[in-house]
Design goal:
Blueprint (H helix, E strand, L loop, with lengths): L6 E3 H29 L3 H31 L1 H8 L9 E3 L2 H21 L1
Antiparallel strand pairs: 1-2
Helix pairs in contact: 1-2, 1-3, 1-4, 2-4
Length: about 120
């Protein structure tokens, strides 16, 4: 596993992390659910349902920690959202839980992309 992340740019939060988390949520809500509904093999269906629950729990943990990060750095993130800091966004110092959430979000996104193919 890669080294712990302790800095992240506000730009990356707004334009990379959040969109990837939303894409992962959409995949779980639509693609994975559709696969579950179409599945006729009982064992495979159970595996997919377990995977869906696992994704949902991980997403909930990530969201909780991202909300904490977004509250702590609301001004910096809003500046990026409003385009006030294009190209030179603030570096956000992550606490241990936020760092784990960021790494988990990236890992979950990669897993979701593999699942979608």
């Amino acid at each position: 596993m890669s080294a712990s992340i302790d800095l992240l740019s506000a730009h990356d939060v707004i334009f990379e992390l959040i969109p990837k988390l939303q894409a992962t949520e959409r995949l779980v809500d639509s693609t994975l659910q559709a696969r579950i509904e179409r599945c006729t093999d009982t064992d495979e269906r159970a595996r997919l349902e377990e995977l869906k629950v696992e994704f949902e729990l991980e997403i909930a943990m990530i969201r909780m920690n991202l909300e904490h990060l977004m509250t702590r750095y609301s001004r910096q993130l809003e500046a990026v959202r409003q385009g006030e800091q294009a190209g030179n966004s603030a570096s956000l110092t992550l606490d241990a839980h936020e760092a784990v959430a960021v790494e988990s979000a990236r890992t979950l996104y990669r897993r979701a992309q593999e699942l979608a193919t």
